[in-house]
Amino acid sequence: MATKGTAAAAYPSAARISDSPCYLQYSASLKCLEEFGSDKSKCQDHFDVYKECKKKEREARLERNKTRSLFS
Q1: Taking every annotated instance into account, which residue ranges of this chain make up the domain CHCH (predicted)?
Q2: Would you give per-residue pLDDT tens digits along the chain (72 residues)?
Q3: How many CB atoms lie within 10 A of CB 68?
Q4: Which of 7, 25, 44, 60 is deepest in the core (most CB within 10 A)?
Q5: In the chain, how many domains are there?
């Protein structure tokens, strides 16, 4: 059984959005929504940047996981 410290080292935490490399893009999207309220079309650029960041983050995670084995 792995300890919490070991698990954190082996698997970077994405449990908290503030730990995400996309936190700045996420925050900018929310700030835009606060500024423009229900007019989401004005925030589309922020949404697109955040979506692209999350895509790259996911691809990097999948690439890291390719080298890991469940049995080693």
Answers
A1: 22-56
A2: 444 444 444 445 556 878 889 999 999 999 999 999 878 999 999 999 999 999 999 999 898 888 877 775
A3: 9
A4: 25
A5: 1
Assigned domain for 3 exists? no
- Tell me the two tokens of residue 44: 């589309």
**Do residues 55 and 34 make contact, with C-beta atoms less than 8 angstroms apart?**
no
Which residue matches tokens 């999350």? 54
Domain of residue 43, residue span = 39-71
Give the residue among 30, 3, 35 at the shortest CA–CA distance from 18.
30
Distant-in-sequence, close-in-space partners of 29: CB < 8 Å, separation ≥ 6: 43, 46, 47, 50
Question: Is residue 32 in a domain?
Answer: no
